[in-house]
TrEMBL record:
Residues 12-53 form the Transcription regulator TrmB N-terminal domain. Gene3D superfamilies: Winged helix-like DNA-binding domain superfamily/Winged helix DNA-binding domain. This is Transposase Tc1-like domain-containing protein. One of its GO terms (biological process) is DNA integration. Residues 54-104 form the Transposase Tc1-like domain. GO terms for molecular function: DNA binding.
Length: 106
C-alpha cells in the first residue's frame, strides 16, 4: 500500500498536479503522507525511501568525511555530545531506610 501511495503521488506530480489538497481529494491518501512525499519529490526528484547512514550517503556522492570532522562541525554550530549523568544505584541499606520512612504513607 505504501508503494502504491508513493506511485500515485509521483504519477500525479508528473502530470502537473502538485497541490497537496488536490492530490488528497483525488486519492484519499492522508495529507501528512502527501506532504512528506512532496517534500521528497522537491528535494530529490523521487519518492523512494532513502536508506543508509550519513556516511553511506556521503560516500555514494564521492565525499569522504570522518566521524571526527562531522562532530567538529556540529560542535562549531552549537551541537554538543552529552551523556546523561550517572546516578548511583541504591544499596540494600538505602532501600530499607526508604521503606521505613514511607511505611505509614498508605
Amino acid at each position: 500500500m505504501i508503494t502504491a501511495n508513493r506511485q500515485a503521488i509521483q504519477q500525479l506530480w508528473n502530470q502537473g498536479i502538485q497541490d497537496a489538497m488536490e492530490i488528497h481529494n483525488r486519492t484519499n491518501i492522508p495529507l501528512s503522507t502527501i506532504y512528506d512525499n512532496l517534500k521528497k519529490l522537491k528535494n530529490s526528484g523521487t519518492v523512494q525511501h532513502i536508506e543508509g547512514t550519513l556516511s553511506t550517503k556521503l560516500s555514494s556522492t564521492g565525499i569522504d568525511v570522518s566521524y571526527r570532522t562531522i562532530g567538529r562541525h556540529l560542535s562549531n554550530h552549537g551541537y554538543h555530545k552529552k551523556l546523561p549523568r550517572a546516578s548511583p544505584m541504591l544499596t540494600a541499606n538505602h532501600s530499607i531506610e526508604w521503606a521505613k520512612k514511607h511505611l505509614n504513607n498508605d
